[in-house]
Specification:
Blueprint lengths: L2 H55 L18
């Protein structure tokens, strides 16, 4: 193996290590973002459940069925 071949292999190894480091950083950033999104989803799910409970407990006098809704003002 010549010196040029050795230098080329070393450069390829350095390039691969750089790419691996970049990919590890990208995966970590994506994982952190995914965790944040999961927290937001769980919070929204809790809010939807609370709203559903409030609607089921209320007398629903303020909420009309679709057929009871008055027509929009432009009619």
């Amino acid at each position: 193996m010549t010196q040029a071949d050795t230098n080329e292999l070393q450069q390829q190894l350095i390039d691969l290590e750089s790419k691996l480091a970049f990919q590890e950083d990208a995966v970590l950033a994506l994982n952190n973002e995914l965790l944040e999104h999961q927290k937001r989803i769980e919070k929204l799910q809790r809010q939807v459940l609370l709203l559903a409970e409030k609607l089921s407990r209320s007398d629903n006098s303020d909420i009309l069925r679709p057929e009871e809704e008055p027509p929009p003002p432009h009619y």
